[in-house]
Amino acid sequence: ALREAWQRDTDGPVRYETRMLPADGVPRWFECISSQTTWSGTPASLITMVDVSERRSAEDALRLSASILQRVGDIVVVIGPDGRITYASPSVEAVLGYEAQEVLGDAWWHLTWEDAAAGEAVRATSARAARGEIAPMAGSYERAVRARDGKTRWILWHDSKGPGDQLIAVGVDI
After folding, report:
1. How confident is the model at residue 69 (pLDDT cuts 50, 70, 90)?
2. What is the pTM of this model?
3. What burial class does residue 171 get, using C-beta atoms within 10 Å of its C-beta: 0-12 exposed, 13-18 middle, 19+ buried?
4. Which residue from 9, 15, 87, 162 could staple onto 168, CB 3.0 to 4.6 Å apart?
């Protein structure tokens, strides 16, 4: 692969990742930067290698999580420290008729709540739970949610503290 890259572009360094089997027998990924140079007047290759196995594992785990969230039927909503929705799973569209992007920020509280004051109160409580000032609501609870078609859907929710200042709410249409 390196030889092919140099044949295409011989003017600069070539960057690539490769999987290697070190002496300990545990396969690892390495990011390599290879440059053509001279050493004591003789053409040579200078290759710098950095172990990127942990980064690759994290990226693979993130891709797997994203893939799972694309297929799960439950609504997943992530609430930030200000009470704004920072993530909504694609299932929001199947269950409520809203595209995930439509409910981000403050929109969730305006679109899905009949009573704006009640929605604002829950938003404020959710923000406090996201920041860790109070515990998320214990156990599961039911809440009416307004769908795009104006009909009320009953959703069984379960909240949990996420990483950092986030609250994760998972809802099942009942």
Report:
1. low
2. 0.62
3. buried
4. 162
